[in-house]
Amino acid sequence: MSGPSNFQPKSALLQWTERRLPILGLMHSSFVAYPTPRNLNYWWTFGGILSFCLGVQIITGIVLAMHYTPTVAGAFESVEHIMRDVNYGWLLRNMHASGASMFFIAVYIHMFRGLYYGSYKEPREILWILGVIIFLLMMATAFMGYVLPWGQMSFWGATVITNLFSAIPGIGPKVVEFLWGGYSVDQPTLQRFFSLHYLLPFMIAGVVVLHVWALHEVGQNNPAGIDVKSDKDTLPFTPYATAKDSFAMVCFMILFAWFVFYIPNYLGHADNYIPANPLQTPTHIVPEWYFLPFYAILRAIPSKLGGVIAMFASIAVLAFLPWLDRAKTRSAKYRPLFKQFFWIFVITCIGLGWLGAKPAEGGYVIASRILTAWYFIHFLVVLPLLSYYEKPSQVPASIAESVLGKQPLATAKAKGSR
Amino acid sequence: MAKSTTMNGEQPTRRDFLYIATGAVGAVGAAAAAWPLISQMNPDASVQALASTEVDLTPVAEGQIITVKWRGKPVFIAHRTKKEIEEAKATQLRDLPDPQPDEARVKKGKEQWLVLVGVCTHLGCVPLGHQGDYKGFFCPCHGSHYDTSGRIRKGPAPSNLEVPPYEFATDTMVRIG
Ligand code: HEM
Ligand code: FES
To answer: Which of B158, B114, B120, B159 is nearest to B138 (CA)?
Structure first.
């Protein structure tokens, strides 16, 4: 798609550089001349927003690390010190803590976008799987980050999540001791989590490069879910996508700023302002909101190993999606049944998220079981069956036609001039 | 590099042998280099040097449960009432997911003292004493109920609360570890 760039810088110096390292040409062909489908809607702006989020986390994180102390005795206090004493420390920490939530809001929208428009289908399987890997790395990073302030939720969240591995038959307890570096979550655990929390975002950045590379190899999907067939179907990245992405990003920043400045603790948990106490578990442990659906799945299964397997399977199943949904039509726009099941699935996920925050008793457990079952039925039964039995509606002949309607070629050309 | 000749159905050459030998030594070298990097994650010598904890039982009244720290973990010492002991003994083994008689979980002649690692065998929370359907221990995290012998009765936990190694140094002094 991106082809060799015929980019030629004007200045002699840049021409000299370009002959030795064609980086400007690479940038130009990737982000200026790059042809984007002309029908992209705002759901396609979240890739850019996600890059922004990663940048924010890395920059604020590096600065926080200049003031943070990764010790059992000092961690909690150092975070309070950041909040009270460090110049603009409150701002940096609020940005980092709310930033993690913003990151997950964006990634969930981005993923549901992919589910709706069939972006995981041929030829984007690897692109999709790289996305699943990024999601896993994000979860690991956010989990370890949340341990760092060493409050009650940090400590008990770390205890419960690391104990998931004790469900592995035979070697489980040894694996958990290996993760802890001791016999309980303690100093060695905190210190290694800090080290890994610093490392993983850079690994995410690496996988993002692969993700974008794969994207530029196969090209973007689009709301019509049909391939680009001619130049009429595309518009150059700059100014079209650049402007749309920038506008969406500014809107996102407003939401972000509202959280940072007005409700910085809204998405957090009050118990994390109590220093960690290894002898007392809070009566009600809840993970951060972005883990709640998976937490609900974990608790829905009345067996320790079974719950852990179901939880990991709920993420792993995403990686197999391109082979579970074999329908040729990509976009839900032209799949009347799939579209309904998609929305049922969205409600299922939100329902699981709500249940994950409720105590594990009575009706909540029953509801969690029903929704957990549906989560898997959607992927393992509904999608494969729909692939064979659903009759898709008429797909437009081209992207240009889907935007401009069936027009005589001449007018279409005039409107789509560039 | 020259092409391997075995592809043509000929005998392996000296070069094939060297390829495989070099590869094998390289793999062993990589594994040897990775070993210390992985092994350092395990509990270190200072963590392993587990101190034993001594606890004086005289102030613990009947019906009371105290929590002490051992190896960074909470340990419960419960001074059980007659009723609690009887309930624990009367329980049929077939009613237990992880069958174990009460005698196997306490020291003979010291049945009033129940010593347990206070870590839920589900995912590691600290259960609450005198709570739950069996009035033993209740884990609030995901709802595991333990009886007055610390045995799992209901909920996601797979096994009974662990009994740590301990002994009575004197009649009223217990040494854990
Ligand atoms: C993928 C990117 C990242 C995510 C999702 C993330 C997430 C988090 C979360 C959820 C917290 C807990 C916030 C709180 O409640 O206080 C945290 C804390 C922290 N993070 Fe990150 N982080 C990321 C990148 C980084 C990077 C690159 C660094 C350092 C170079 C870093 C350094 C820290 C430090 C020092 C803390 C402890 C201070 C605090 O709790 O505010 N983070 N992170
Ligand atoms: S940790 Fe006790 S029930 Fe899950």
So the answer is: B120
CA distance A354 to A28: 45
Task: Determine the residue type at A105.
Answer: I
d(CA A253, CA A275): 32
What is d(CA A395, CA A225) in angstroms, rounded to the nearest whole number? 9
ipTM of the complex: 0.81
Which amino acid does the sequence have at B176?
I
Cα–Cα dist B137/B151, whole Å: 9
Nearest to A160 among B47, B67, B124 (CB): B124
Helices (H) and strands (E) in chain A, counts: 18, 2
Scanning the structure block, which residue is given the tokens 């040097």? B49
> How do the domains of chain A map onto residue ranges?
35-220+237-285, 286-405
Could you give the CA distance from residue A304 to residue A368 in angstroms, rounded to a whole number? 16
Classify residue A151 by its DSSP letter. Answer: B
What CATH number matches the domain at A286-405, 1.10.510.10, 1.10.287.980, 2.60.40.1120, 1.20.1250.20? 1.10.287.980
- The structural architecture, per CATH, of the domain A35-220+237-285 is Up-down Bundle (1.20)
pLDDT digits (tens, 9 = 90+) for B38-80: 999 999 988 877 678 899 999 999 999 999 988 888 999 999 9
Contacts of B149 (CB under 8 A, 6+ apart): B88, B91, B100, B102, B105, B106, B114, B136, B160
Chain B nearest-CA distance from A45, in A, is: 39
Tokens of A123: 């030829």
CB contact under 8 A, A179 and B156: no
